[in-house]
Amino acid sequence: MFHPLRVREIERLTDDAVAVTFTVPPALRTTFRHTPGQHIALRRTVDGQEIRRTYSICTPATDDPVLRVGIRLVEDGAFSTYALKELTVGDTVDVMAPAGRFTLAPRPGQFVGIVGGSGITPVLSIATTLLAREPHARFCLIRSDRTTASTMFLEEVADLKDRYPERFQLVHVLSREERQTGLPSGRLDQERLHTLLPALLQTDAIDGWYLCGPFGLVQGAERALRALGVPRTHIHEEIFHIDNGAAAPVPAATAPAHSTVTATLDSRSGTWPVHDGESLLEAVLRNRPDAPYACKGGVCGTCRAFLVSGEIRMDRNFALESDEVDAGYVLACQSHPATEQVELDFDR
Ligand code: FES
After folding, report:
1. Pocket mutation for ligand 1, best pick of 316, 331, 346 (most atoms within 8 Å of C-beta)
2. pLDDT band at residue 75 under the 50/70/90 scheme
3. How far is the CA of 213 from the centre of ligand 1 (A)?
4. Which helix (H) or strand (E) holds 1?
5. Which of 134, 218, 295, 332 is deepest in the core (most CB within 10 A)?
6. CA distances from 130 to 62, 79, 219 (A)
């Protein structure tokens, strides 16, 4: 469900990125309380067309949190262009309550973030909350940006260094700029991480790895970690940008000629036909426009639902952890029926 929130502040972070802060009225404070690492979906309607995008919350989770997101301009991005060029203080934007499972509830231990570009946004919230709330936690941030000028939240990260010199470690790699600190420039890819990580950390002593950014970086980091023997359960991922060609959808298996989806949403259920080729989300949306979604690309996880019965085929999944898939959760936007009847529960 979307709530209209007023824009309280817009701060320019770089030439192509802003931080937008929303005013949360007292009646919605509980709704908008977030766990560090979560995102919110924003909605805008242009010429009758709805545009939805998810953006990660960059602020720490406190008792009275500030709802602030980082938005970077994406080429031809319908929402980011609007956010950077048109949005002004006092405007109202439809905002969905925080969601997402790329989270870290503060606990003692040693954690690492590997981020690229705007992937810093949720990890900044994670690291800031963790270090403030848990005196026995340490965080190492390995970030990759094109240049210093294009780096989002430079000051906030520098502030963490000043505040927690013993417990916060920063490695900043710039792909298009030489650094004076001795760190070579260049991309943070699988090969480089495979060499860098063991030199920097005792990889088997890390309690959680948080990878966030473009598909290529996250995939490279995951492969490097797996090659270093890091268990899959210690790796958490959030992908920000994905080219359509980056991960080919699973080829269509034999689909039933006619199928129906039964969906429960806000305690109300209905059964509807699924048209040829459409996703379960599309079938549900035709009848229940309040069904949750944002990216429709298998990335944000907003459309997560529990598969009560039947079988489905998922095109791609960059949002659900393997334990969620094992527990029976699916992404409705990527799911197609593999049996004549499929039942989803969006409330679980
Ligand atoms: S709507 Fe984003 S994963 Fe389905």
Report:
1. 331
2. confident
3. 17
4. none
5. 332
6. 11, 31, 25
227: tokens are 């090659």
Q: Return the amino acid letter for 325.
A: V
Question: How many residues comprise the chain?
Answer: 348
Mutate to test the pocket of ligand 1, among 56, 96, 101, 303 (most ligand atoms within 8 A of CB): 303
39-46 vs 235-239, strand pairing mode: unpaired
Of 34-38, 132-136, 249-253, 344-348, the poorest mean pLDDT is in: 249-253
Place of tokens 């094992």: 326
- For residue 80 the two structure tokens come to 């980011």
Contact between residue 37 and residue 125 where contact means Cβ atoms under 8 Å apart = yes
Exposure of 75 by Cβ count < 10 A (0-12 exposed, 13-18 middle, 19+ buried)?
exposed
- pLDDT for 322: 84
Residue 138 has pLDDT above 80, yes or no: yes
- Give me the torsion for CA of 145, 146, 147, 150, rounded to 10°: -70
Question: Domain limits of the chain?
Answer: 2-96, 109-239, 259-345
Extract the tokens encoding 151.
Answer: 């780096």
- C-alpha 345 to ligand 1 mean position (Å): 15
Give CATH for domain 2-96.
2.40.30.10
Task: Report the chain's C-alpha Rg in angstroms.
Answer: 21
- Whole-angstrom distance between the N-terminal and C-terminal Cα of the chain? 16
Name every protein residue with a CB atom under 6 angstroms from any ligand 1 atom: 293-296, 298-303, 319, 331, 333
**Contact status, residue 141 vs residue 57, Cβ threshold 8 Å:** no
pLDDT attached to residue 321? 86
Domain spanning 109-239, CATH architecture: 3-Layer(aba) Sandwich (3.40)
β pairing state of 109-116 and 137-145: parallel
How confident is residue 165, by pLDDT bands cut at 50, 70 and 90?
A: very high
Which residue from 185, 189, 225, 228 is spatially nearest to 209, judged by alpha carbons? 225
